[in-house]
């Protein structure tokens, strides 16, 4: 009993414990400051990198910034926590060794998680897609998600659809990835005119106008082209056109160009197809009998 009381009232012991607690608080505050500084440094590094030829794209830089910031946070917190435990006399080496053995045992039962993490590494470092890309994800031939990539993690990826739904996919389930934001897109659309119009005349007045459109619309890479007559039917001729656009802007551009070209043709007297009604007069029976 006396030994317990002497230990409890030992001033040196409490001073040592208080010093360790104070030192731990200082380390935690230091970790918070260092993490913020490292995050700012990473952002500044990529901000400078964007001004040089080394930067591939803003979306790629955003993906790498988030990944490096996460890794830096994990590493700093691991170092700080192991240092604090060491100050309190905990044998960190034994914990790490035990964690390694436990990790191996857990790994056999968590193969899906390991697969997700490994696939996440390949997605990021192979640059399969970046934050902000529009993608379609297929699993065993079936589309499971399509939309804009919101975030890429080592275990899962978040994809927001056009209508607002957020899909969270484990990385290991992505068998096929279609990225619509890597290369320029091609807008294919038809313009309908009356079958009575002269196609050569339309081409002669339309071609110079098409050359002015890239200056009018920033999403156009180059002037649209007339591919030729796509279809001829009663009263209607469809002229197929193509336009190279910035990635994933083909739908928007095709809608804009349809209206723009239609207005231009109206101004130049080119008529659109109009429905026709043909009426036949039925011969009168009395007239037939009279004959």
Biggest β-sheet description: 5 strands, antiparallel
Low-confidence stretches: none
Number of domain modules: 3
Question: From N to C, what is the helix and strand string?
Answer: HHHHHEEEEEEHHEEHH
CATH architecture of the largest domain: Orthogonal Bundle
Query: What fraction of the residues are assigned to beta strands by DSSP?
Result: 15-25%
Measured on Cα atoms, how large is the radius of gyration? Answer: 34 Å
Mean pLDDT: 79
Helix content: 40-55%
Q: What is the quaternary state of this protein? A: single chain
Number of helices: 9
What's the CATH first level of the largest domain?
Answer: Mainly Alpha
Summarize the structure.
This protein is an alpha+beta fold. It has helices spanning 2-8, 11-49, 58-87, 92-109, 111-125, 199-210, 213-216, 250-267, 285-290; strands spanning 134-139, 142-152, 156-160, 166-170, 176-179, 185-194, 225-233, 236-245.
Q: Tags for this entry?
A:
about 290 residues, Alpha-Beta Plaits, SH3 type barrels, alpha+beta, about 50% helix, Helix Hairpins, membrane, 8 strands, three-stranded antiparallel beta sheet, 3 domains, transmembrane, mechanosensitive monoatomic ion channel activity, Mechanosensitive ion channel protein MscS, five-stranded antiparallel beta sheet
Would you write up a description of this structure?
This protein is α+β, with helices and mostly antiparallel strands and 291 residues long. It is 51% helix and 21% strand. The protein has 3 domains: 11-123, Helix Hairpins; 127-179, SH3 type barrels, CATH 2.30.30.60; 185-268, Alpha-Beta Plaits, CATH 3.30.70. The chain has a 5-stranded antiparallel sheet with strand order 4-3-2-1-5. Strands 6-8-7 form a 3-stranded antiparallel sheet, covered by helices on one side. The longest helix has 39 residues, at 11-49.
